[in-house]
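User: My collaborator sent over this chain with a note saying "see what the structure looks like." That's all I know about it. Can you take a look?
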Amino acid sequence: MPADKHSLLQRLRCRASLLSAGMVLSSFLLLPLAGTAAEPPSFAIAVAGLGENLEDAPCVADSRAILGLLSSKELAERTGLAWQISAVEHLASDPAEADRTARQALASKPSLILCTNAIMLKSVLMARTDATPVFVPEGVPVEETVLDEIPGEKLKNLYFHSSSPSTNPKLATLIGYLGARRIGFLHVDMLDDIQDLLPTRAARAAAELGCEAVAVGIPQDSYDECLKGMRRLAALKPDAVYLGHLRCASTEELGGLLQPLLDAGIPAVGTESLGEASAGALLAFYQRADTMERRNAYRMLRILFSGRGKELPPLVAPGELAVNIETASMLGIRLPMNVLADAEYIIWKTRSAPAP
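Assistant: Without extra context I'll predict from the sequence alone. Here is the result:
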């Protein structure tokens, strides 16, 4: 091989070796920086509640569902963010143990405490000595009077969603669609329902929206008592009736309960299921099974990321609107086209739609 070609080949090999060494060195230098930049924040959640209380059991189950959503890829994809969640349950077996359990939850130095019970909420707030955020999920039955005995400085960083009756979108939408100024509610006066504040919150929201609330109380949640209550409510002639939790009625039985209102020309607005519209309610606002947990998970995420310079995009919770055209025609109500356009289901004949 000629000397000049041999020299050129050596120079090319030398440059290739230097280039390879430079690339390897660069990768080692940049690897720690890339790892640091991609490291997602870690959040520790403490769940505080009563573990053997039957009334609290559904709220504990809901909290586990919320944490499951927080750990899912779906929420990360929706927000474009990454994070790591660890959770520990601190469940007292008896209300007398609430104070000790609250102190245990606080001692773990969590990023956020999720309270699933009014007793535990009060214990956590009274024991808290720092700014650890406390979150009460939507759906946890908590009397607003629980906060009356707690000093104001203890209420900082308390995210008490369930005490906000003024922002009731279903009532606001009802008033906007129907122009209703007098809203009827059916109360169930059972001891088991003493913590169920839906009628109270709805009535307060109606008042804050400039409406009058007409309430009828019934002694127990049975079909016969609900039917009597509906007849009494119809006699008071409200502009519309806001349906709460009618646990006594199946989809088929709802039609019988709504008949006194239909006979009096009063539209009913359901807030639970598609079955209410199929049974004869004019409108039904309802949500998919995991909607409440999804809203709660997103609220918790906003709390956890607050102060980190991360702006979370708005998350539209999946919800549905059903419209019963037969009821609208029977009552002589002409719904605007935007209502019909927003409806996920339009029911042309009562009881023609299946129960969800």
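A starting point for your reply to your collaborator: The radius of gyration is 28 Å.
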